[in-house]
């Protein structure tokens, strides 16, 4: 009997680890102008940002009317770490406006609404999850990056 217990525990641990690794990187949910989309990351790294996988095809594309906001919902894996949102809009003539950004501390927010100024339309929304690494100039390196491009209707 004592010899079976470790084997059972080992099998349970292996099953748990296999289940965790099979889940893959977190996905975000975005909603704009009546449409919902799941976003996989265009880049996702380990927490120390030493091993990364790029998936540029994961970038989303949505059609949105002017003045319409975009709601972003992030899972706990992202919300419970530092994360940022970068938003760029265009004016009525299609001229890009300055990029706006918002930073969230761990556990501060699980959702964000990107709102264009009156008469503007969202152009690009990018969400970044901070990693535990810094670049040469002391800026935190993103562990995960999710991106969606918005075109006008």
| Cα radius of gyration in angstroms | 19 Å
How many beta-strand elements?
11
**Biggest sheet descriptor:** 7 strands, mixed
What spatial form do the alpha-carbon principal axes imply? globular
Uncertain runs are 1-21
| Estimated helix fraction | 10-25%
Straight-line distance between termini: 69 Å
Give the rounded overall mean pLDDT: 88
Provide a count of the helices: 2
- Which secondary-structure class do the elements indicate? alpha+beta
Please write the string of helix (H) and strand (E) elements.
HEEEEEEHEEEEE
Assess the beta-strand content as a share of residues.
Answer: over 45%
Please indicate the count of domains. 1
Keywords: Signal
Pfam family, one: DUF2771
Protein name: DUF2771 domain-containing protein
């Amino acid at each position: 009997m004592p010899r079976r217990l470790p084997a059972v525990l080992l099998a349970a641990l292996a099953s748990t680890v296999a289940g965790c690794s099979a889940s893959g990187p977190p996905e975000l949910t975005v909603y704009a102008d009546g449409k919902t989309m799941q976003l996989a990351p265009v880049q996702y790294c380990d927490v120390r940002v030493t091993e990364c996988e790029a998936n540029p095809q994961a970038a989303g594309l949505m059609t949105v009317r002017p003045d319409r906001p975009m709601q972003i919902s992030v899972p706990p894996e992202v919300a419970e770490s530092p994360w940022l949102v970068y938003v760029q809009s265009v004016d009525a003539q299609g001229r890009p406006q300055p990029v706006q950004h918002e930073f969230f501390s761990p556990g501060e927010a699980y959702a964000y609404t990107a709102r264009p100024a009156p008469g503007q339309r969202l152009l690009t929304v990018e969400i970044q999850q901070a990693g535990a690494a810094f670049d040469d100039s002391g800026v935190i390196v993103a562990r995960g990056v999710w991106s969606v491009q918005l075109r006008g209707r």
